[in-house]
Amino acid sequence: MRALALAMILLPATAAAEFFTLKGHGGPIMGIATAPDGRIATASFDNSVGLWTGTQANWLEGHEAAVNAVAFNGTALYSVSDDFTLRRWPGGGIAGQHKGKIVGVALSETHVATASWDGTIGLWPQDGTTSHLLGPTGAGVNAVAFSADGSHLYSAGMDGVLRLWDVSSGQEIRQVIRHGFGINEIVLNESDGWLAYGAVDGVTRILDLETGAERDFTLDRRPILALALSPDRRHLAVGDGEGYIMVIDTSAWRIARDFRATLNGPVWALAFSADGKNIHAGGIADTMYSWPIDSLDEHGKMAETDRSFLKDPDQMENGERQFARKCSICHALTPEGGRKAGPTLFGIFGRPAGTLPGYLYSDTLKESDIVWTDETINLLFDLGPDHYIPGSKMPMQRITEAQDRADLVTYLHRATQVENQK
Ligand code: HEC
C-alpha cells in the first residue's frame, strides 16, 4: 500500500499516455534522455539543456556551443557539446575535455564515456580519478555503449567500424562489424543478446551478439540519426533524416509503427518515457514532441480504418492527399475517432473549437471562441497553429499554397459530413 501511494506521488503529470509537447528551447533539439522518475532532459542547438518536470523547464546554461546529447545518472546529469566539453549537472562543471566536438555519451556505474569527432573515446571515472582516452580510431566517433557490468565498451563512427574495447586496459579487443558507411547510432541490449546500429546510408540492423547474424530493417530513408530502446526492451525506435519514426517490436521482430513525425526536417533525438508508453522526439523544431505509441496505428490498421491509406497518395486528388500526408497521422474522419493524438474531424464544419465530448483539449483551444468553417480552417494552416492559436496542442505546421488549403477544405467537407457516414 505504502509503496503504491509513493509510486503515485512520484508519477509526473506527463506520465499519462497522451500526446504532448515541451516548448521553450530556442533551437533544434539534438538529444533527449529520460530518468526513471519521469524527468526529461533535452539537449539543444541553443547551447542549453532543458531539465523538465512536467512541462516546466529548468534551463542549464554553461555550454558554449550546441549541446548534442544528455544522460541521467541518478540525480546528476551529463551533457556533451560542440564546445568539446563533457559537463556534469547540477553546477555544469567540466567533467571531460576533447579536441573536437563530442556527439555521444554513455554511462556505466563507474565511468562516463564520450564519443568525439577528434577520433577518440573519453573514459572519465565518475569519482574524478584519472581519465584516459581510447584510440585514436582514425575517424570521428559518433556513438558509445557500455556492457551492463561496465567492463566493455562498444564504439562506432564515421569509418563504419563497430569496435569492442576492454575498459580497464583501454585496449581494442576487436572490430565487430565493418560497415561500408559511417555508423551514427548504436543501442546495446545485452539482456536479449543484440546490438542495433543505424548508419549514414539508411541501414538499420540488429546484430546477434552471439552468432553474428544480422536482421535488416532498412527502409528507403537516410541517414539514420536516432535510436532508442524502451525500458522494457520491447520497442526499438528509429529516427531518420526524412522525419520518420519507425518502431520495431523486438519480440516479434516486425515493424509495429511507422509514421512521419516531423513535416520539416530530420528526427535527431529519440527517447522513450520512463513508463515506455510514449516516444519523445526532437528535430529542427524548437519543440520536443511526444506520442503515445498506442495512439499510432500500424500501417495495416490504418488501411482498414482510414480509407485514404489504401490508395497510393500520388493517385489521390490533391485535397485527399493533403489530408493523408499532413493530418491523418493525428486525425480520424469517422465518428469513433480511433486512438489518435487529435480529435476526430467528423462533423467539424460549424463545430465550435474544443467542444468534442470526451477529447482532452488544451485550455487554449477550449477557451478560444473559434468556430470551424472554411475560413478558419484555411487560416489555421495559412498562419500555422502556433500563430493562429498559440498554446494549442496542435503541432506547428503551415500549408503555404492557397490552392492546397482550398483543396483540403473541399475534401474535408466531403469526408466529414454527418450524412455521408450514416
Ligand atoms: C501531430 C498531430 C497533428 C497533426 C499532424 C494535425 N493535427 Fe489537428 N490537432 C491535433 C491536436 C493534438 C489537436 C487538439 C489541439 C488542442 O487541444 O489544443 C488538434 C486540433 C485540430 C482542430 C480543432 C478541432 C476541434 O475540435 O476544435 C482542427 C480543425 C484540426 N486539428 C485540423 C487539422 C488538419 C486539417 C490537419 C492537417 C493539415 C491537422 N489538424 C494536423 C493534432 C494534430
Automatic annotation (TrEMBL):
The keyword Translocase does not apply. PROSITE patterns: CYTC, WD_REPEATS_1, WD_REPEATS_2, WD_REPEATS_REGION. WD repeats lie at residues 22-52, 60-89, 141-175. The keyword Iron applies. Keywords: Electron transport, Heme, Iron, Metal-binding, Repeat, Signal, Transport, WD repeat. Coiled coil: none annotated. Residues 1-17 form the signal peptide. Residues 314-416 form the Cytochrome c domain. Pfam families: Cytochrom_C, WD40. PANTHER family: WD REPEAT DOMAIN 5B, WD40 REPEAT PROTEIN. This is C-type cytochrome.
